[in-house]
Amino acid sequence: MRAHEAGALHASGYGQPSWLRVPDDVFGLVPSLWSSSVARGGDGVVTVAGVRVDDLAREFGTPAYVLDEADFRDRAADFRYTYSSVFSGLGGADVYYAGKAFLCTEVARWMRDDGLSLDVCSGGELEVARRAGMPGERIGVHGNNKSVAELEAAVGYGVGKIVVDSFEEIDRLAAVAQRLGRPARVMIRVTVGVEAHPHEFIATAHEDQKFGFSLSGGAAAEAARRIFSHAPHLELVGLHSHIGSQIFDTSGFEVSARRVLGLHADIAQEHGVELPELDLGGGFGIAYTTEHDPLPPKHLAAGMAEIVERECRASGLAVPRISIEPGRAIAGPSTFTLYEVGTVKTVDLDGGATRAYVSVDGGMSDNIRTALYDANYSCTVASRVSEAPPMLSRVVGKHCESGDIVVMDEFLPADVRAGDLIAVPGTGAYCRALSSQYNHTPRPPVVAVRDGAARLIVRRETVDDLLALDVP
Ligand SMILES: Cc1ncc(COP(=O)(O)O)c(C=O)c1O
Predict the structure, then answer these.
(1) 433 CA to middle of ligand 1, Å?
(2) Are residue 188 and residue 301 in the same domain, yes or no?
């Protein structure tokens, strides 16, 4: 192994992950990682929907989440169109955008206008939906510990379904529905013993987690009995199963659908009721780096339709109306985070190699996923190009934690320096949503870009915002 002429790593074998290759062009943009309108202009500056990132940085500051509106809405429309066409000859299908990935009033309005439904999992998310004018019947409510106030808000707003998660909640919700004089449509969150992770899923018999009613232990069947006992205040409309995240094929869904449809058939036999709906959850994977190769919705939808139809035919039941809840696969690829580089340090590694630590003006407060889940991201210098060779780098934040890493391993040009703009793609899901004010850092704005124009859909926090709750 030899150190690169720029004094940095330029070959495999220095501890970078196996999927990370030395790029032919360190300024190249891998299309699968970026929203559809991102390109590098002739002068080397990255643009999104025709807007230059240096102009965005000047107008809105850094760090900033830059959201490609057409890309976000096209992905949502693709899911909606694909699932409704693939399931049209069966029981039909609905797509609930999982707002936990990223929600603000404008995004909820897009989902309202574009015909999607919305999955919320707190009173706060429900309030965003309400203020955006999302019709109640197009809202699904999740949560393993919904408060009475949250249940009252959901029933009062006439939501389409509340996914119940415990026996206490069933009784609590029945009391709320009775008190408000409005029956609640409910689904049972079933824990089917399938855990999906990137590139694999694990099917187990045990269900050792906080969500849902165990299928194998009989709690899910008992939940159905409890709900029927609360008629007419509760109306059981279906079963729900969510198996995990970053799912890249239908094998995990195959096991979970088979198991949950087994319960669907048992309920039909025991209660003489064919539940009209079935929700198979979210978790559709996206490409954060070149190691990921997600399938387009049409492949997943076709696979899921085949599985559901086969299982229903085997038990002689009609195919229920299917719903899915993609969050990351709609929001994630639409957005990149734009940072400015403040400092660059090189550190010596074993074997005579070096690594560049490139510090940016954000970090774990705007993207906790790297520290929390060991998530991998990619990035590029977005404000210029040069002839400099690739250098193995780590992009770190400005917070007081050594684990404050944004991009663990990436090749950046060896001349990366203070003042450069760095863009990190794939940050539309679970970054703003999980952001914090750690170290009293104001949270970045969300800038939506469309047809050559940029506008704020969430403004930057100010120091006054940070102090607004302190009692003087
Ligand atoms: C019940 C449920 N539905 C949908 C989602 C969305 O998952 P994703 O954003 O991976 O599609 C989640 C994520 O945690 C979830 O818990």
Answers:
(1) 13
(2) yes
Instruction: Determine the distance separating the centroid of ligand 1 and the alpha carbon of 110, expressed in angstroms.
Output: 19
Cβ of 245 less than 6 Å from ligand 1? yes
Query: How far is 388 from 384, CA to CA, in rounded Å?
Result: 11
Residues of the chain below pLDDT 70: 1-15, 198-201, 203-206
Tell me how far apart the alpha carbons of residues 90 and 358 are, in angstroms, rounded to a whole number: 53
Q: What is the model's pLDDT at position 154? A: 98
Is 8 inside any structural domain?
no
200 lies in the same domain as 138: yes
Closest CA to ligand 1's atom 5 = 282
Residues of the domain holding 40: 31-68+333-463
Letter string b/e over residues 125-150, b meaning 16 or more CB atoms within 10 A of that residue's CB: bbebbbebebeeebbbbbbeebeeeb
Q: Are residues 165 and 47 in the same domain?
A: no
What atom of ligand 1 comes closest to residue 325's alpha carbon?
4
- Look at residue 240 and tell me if it is in a domain: yes
Element spanning 407, H or E: strand 405-413
pLDDT tens-digit readout, 133-184: 999 999 999 999 999 999 999 999 999 999 999 999 999 999 999 999 999 9
CA of 311 to the centre of ligand 1 (A): 24
Kind and range of the H or E run holding 201: strand 200-203
Q: What is the separation of C-alpha 350 from the centre of its chain, rounded to a whole number of angstroms? A: 37
Are 213 and 174 contained in the same domain? yes
Choose one of 242, 243, 330, 372 to mutate for the ligand 1 pocket test, by most ligand atoms within 8 angstroms of C-beta. 242
pLDDT value at residue 206: 63
Ligand 1 pocket, 212 CB below 6 A?
no
